[in-house]
Design brief:
about 280 residues; alpha/beta; Rossmann fold; 11-stranded mixed sheet; 13 strands
Length: about 280
């Protein structure tokens, strides 16, 4: 059941709002309430540098960020109303770090979060927001490519599978989407160095989904560890996959989570919406 959602709508790219627009389509599909969050980012400047900047420059930048955030909120609410989605929107003036913490805490009392992939060409992109949403919220997130246009589409859904706890969590969290999917493929990746070793329990996951009335096919890929993201994304493109499901991996370093290689590779190069759970 997805009845309460939150979306970061301040990851706008070139004036578009791919994450916000996609979130509206998901909320419409599930009949969910949607809360948008638009951040008016405060400058995160070291005190010694801050002291050297004219106050009017800082105030002008802050006012412009606030204006843009409110414009995003208005556009988001108009799109939600047009789609018949119940929605509200918060505008928060925070640093990048403060925004990431605020958003991850907000997700904890919802069913699902939608976030935009950071746009490398957009100075307002907040790289840490996606990572902290994934690792600190305890809820699934859907990451939307900054190049994505169009609503939720579930004709072909792909479950990236390695038998791990994170992959199992993602598959379970994705059930509302899988129940609406036209076709489901479970895609485990096996290292080329040992192609005869069966991927962990992919067939068992297919049998589990069958108990939910879902037919899923298993399609095995072979790739070296460093090529797993490329193998998954290439297969998704070749197979016209609309939506991907995968576990989000990372490890703690100095009390902060650092993305695992496969997760980082997907988030950096993603070409389709991806549901991730940790």
């Amino acid at each position: 059941m997805i009845k309460d959602m939150v979306a970061n709508i301040s990851s706008a790219s070139r004036g578009d709002h791919p994450a916000g627009d996609f979130a509206v389509s998901v909320a419409a599909a599930f009949g969910a309430h949607l809360t948008g969050v638009a951040f008016a980012h405060k400058p995160d400047i070291a005190p010694d540098l801050f002291a050297g900047l004219p106050a009017d420059i800082i105030e002008t930048a802050a006012a412009e960020n606030e204006k843009q955030a409110r414009e995003m909120a208005e556009r988001f609410l108009a799109a939600a109303a047009k789609a018949g989605v119940g929605a509200d929107c918060d505008v928060a003036s925070l640093t990048f770090d403060g925004a990431a913490e605020f958003f991850s805490r907000k997700i904890r009392v919802t069913d699902l979060a939608v976030v935009g992939q950071p746009d490398p060409d957009a100075p307002e992109s907040n790289d840490m927001l996606v990572e902290r949403a994934l690792f600190e919220s305890g809820r699934p997130i859907v990451a939307v490519p900054y190049i994505h246009r169009g609503p939720l589409k579930l004709d072909r859904v792909m479950v990236s599978w390695d038998g791990s706890r994170a992959a199992a969590r993602a598959a379970g969290d994705a059930l509302p989407f899988l129940l609406r999917a036209g076709a489901i493929e479970i895609v485990p990746v096996t290292a080329k160095k040992n192609p005869d070793e069966p991927p962990a329990s992919a067939d068992d996951m297919a049998r589990h989904l069958a108990k939910h009335g879902l037919k899923a096919e298993v399609h095995r890929l072979y790739a070296a560890d460093i090529d797993v993201p490329s193998a998954l994304l290439s297969y998704a493109a070749d197979s016209a996959i609309d939506f991907m499901v995968m576990g989000g991996y990372g490890h703690s370093r100095l009390r902060e989570f650092v993305l695992g290689g496969a997760t980082r590779g997907i988030l950096d190069s993603m070409t389709l919406p991806v549901l991730m759970s940790h």
